[in-house]
């Protein structure tokens, strides 16, 4: 049984890269950024999470289905 999904780049990833217990949040969960990093490239400014989300250093995200989440940095409070 083929347990892979197509991605934007045409590369195929497993349905779930998460082997953690308890399971990490899915790519559709509001807390998806809490998933474990499976490939980190800070020198390039991105990390692949085990839920197949690409997380960028500016807090933007590319979801496995191709949707883009705009950067959502916290706004600094004026003192």
TrEMBL record:
InterPro entries: DUF5999 (IPR046041). Pfam families: DUF5999 (PF19462). It comes from the Bacteria. This is DUF5999 family protein. It comes from Streptomyces thermolineatus.
